[in-house]
Design goal:
heterodimer, A: mainly alpha, two-stranded antiparallel ribbon, 3 helices, about 5% strand, B: mainly beta, Methylamine Dehydrogenase, Chain H, 2 domains, 2 helices, globular
Chain lengths: ~130, ~375
């Protein structure tokens, strides 16, 4: 596989060989050690009084929030309402990647004549890959 | 209170939480009267169908010499930033395939990158547990490098995701292996808010992905190894607005739906899901078909919506890149089987700002641009 840039001209900032670094080197250089593991918030077994109190406080807060959620669920719309909104949100919206709908000519710039910074003409066909 | 009494209270509280969670689950189940696929079918939605040469690979961006891990487009359409295991951050003009910058990074293990809204800065973060900011208008040295403008330090774990707040040049959100998300002021390097951590409604495992709502940039969603997605309001860091359950594994990727009221997720469980932000309902599951004999279900590494939301792109660990019809919940194309497709895992993907092209990044070291090259029936 070629390691050089895809077009014949570059901005001059990058040389083809400069970015090459062998896979072998990557494999022998180990990644940094992971940060120290975080303290466990909830564990079985013995916990000191302070940590137990803190854990109970967190659980009490979670209980309150779950009770709030249960209350909200009493009057919440079913999923069909949201599904309808999803459908409606797409109506009339232009979609460059679909074969049907209103069109913007700028969407086809990926298949048009392109001029590089050094004036080297370079253009693509629809349906072709230029790499 | 004695330790013994506290332990009793702790056990009782855990039992109450479990019972309430079960009640929530049952109530939610009753409210799921339909999903997107069934609803769309009831409305007579016509499935999308592509011709074999409709979506084509129109560029391959060559230059990285290591696995590509992350990419991001500029808001002004044609430029892309990417980071890879070769220790490089590259800025591309996707239209010409030229590189405008190829910065050698101090830490080669980058996992995230992002373009600033004005396109003049980029951010990247990874296993250095920090986020580095580069000003692209700075003087380049003889090796093609730019000095780091600022380093955002403070995370106690790897940085897996970063995104600039869309309408604010100076604010950035990161997701980290320390289980938190952080909102940063890029100009001062200070943390404005921390989401999660010691707080009760935070993630309980690594945060792998964040997505900011472009319709309301006060809201963002995060995906985590704790198999949930969480919705946050940046004005209220003290607790998550909502937690979204359903996935059976790490949530690797989250992305807001174009209408700003829903979001998608992609997971190690091999599925993608669509959730409703306001109600918390799971609106659709996108499950790939696989052989009963095949024990290895490819994981979803990255997702993106097309600009209308009708197409939903999902990259998988086996090199597949499915194009889902969001409404009909069927796969309409697999970019992984087309001519000139990637030869390795799809690790990242993203749409150009005007939706006219998709960029995919892969462990095969390349980025590819895909666009509609067929005949358009204009209405």
């Amino acid at each position: 596989m070629s390691m050089t840039s895809s077009s014949g001209s570059t901005a001059g900032r990058v040389e083809a060989g400069e970015a090459a670094r062998s896979d072998k080197q990557q494999q022998t250089t180990p990644p940094p050690p992971p940060p120290l593991p975080l303290p466990q918030a909830r564990t079985g077994g013995f916990l000191g009084r302070h940590r137990l109190s803190a854990a109970i406080t967190r659980l009490d807060q979670e209980i309150l929030s779950l009770q709030e959620e249960i209350n909200e669920l009493e009057t919440m719309d079913p999923s069909s309402a949201a599904c309808q909104e999803v459908l409606l949100s797409m109506e009339g919206k232009p979609e460059p990647l679909l074969p049907v709908g209103p069109e913007d000519v700028s969407w086809d710039r990926w298949f048009q004549r392109v001029r590089s910074s050094r004036g080297h003409k370079w253009w693509t066909h629809k349906g072709s890959d230029f790499s | 209170m004695s330790v013994a009494e506290l332990k009793k209270r702790h056990v009782a509280a855990m039992e109450t939480v479990d019972a309430l969670r079960e009640r929530v689950k049952q109530k939610r189940q009753l409210l799921l009267d339909t999903d997107v696929k069934s609803y769309a079918k009831s409305q007579g939605t016509t499935p999308i169908s592509f011709g074999s040469t409709d979506l084509v690979c129109c560029r391959t961006l060559l230059g990285h010499t290591g696995k590509v891990y992350s990419l991001d487009w500029t808001p002004e359409r044609n430029r892309i930033v990417s980071v890879a295991l070769d220790g490089r951050l590259i800025v591309w003009n996707a239209l010409t395939s030229q590189k405008t910058h190829a910065i050698k990074l101090n830490c080669p293990w980058m996992r995230a990158c992002a373009f600033a809204p004005n396109g003049q800065s980029v951010a990247c973060g990874g296993l250095d547990s920090a986020c580095s900011i580069f000003n692209l208008t700075s003087q380049v040295d003889k090796d093609g490098n730019i000095p780091i403008a600022r380093v955002l330090t403070g995370h106690k774990g790897y940085v897996f995701s970063c995104q600039y707040v869309p309408d604010q040049e100076t604010r950035l959100i990161t997701g980290s292996g320390d289980h938190t998300c952080v909102l940063w002021d890029v100009t001062t390097g200070q943390r404005i808010s921390v989401f999660g951590g010691e707080l009760p409604s935070g993630h309980t495992a690594d945060v792998l992905s964040v997505s900011i709502n472009s319709s309301n940039s006060n809201m963002f969603v995060s995906g985590s190894c704790d198999a949930t997605a969480r919705l946050w309001d940046t004005r209220k860091a003290s607790r998550a607005v909502q937690t979204f359950h359903g996935h059976g594994g790490d949530v690797n990727s989250v992305k807001f739906f174009p209408d700003g009221q829903r979001f998608g997720t992609g997971s190690d469980d091999g599925t993608c899901r669509l959730f409703d932000m306001r109600t918390g309902h799971q609106l659709q599951v996108y499950t790939r078909q696989h052989d009963a004999n095949d024990n290895d279900v490819p994981i979803v590494t990255s997702i993106a919506f097309s600009i209308s939301g009708r197409l939903f792109f999902a990259g998988y660990s086996n090199g597949d890149c499915y194009v889902w019809d969001t409404l009909v919940a069927e796969v309409v194309l697999n970019l992984g089987t087309l001519q000139n497709s990637h030869e390795g895992r799809i690790s990242c993907l993203g749409l150009a700002a005007d939706g006219s092209a998709l960029c995919t990044g892969s462990w095969d070291k390349n980025l590819k641009i895909w666009a509609f090259g067929g005949h358009r029936k204009v209405i």
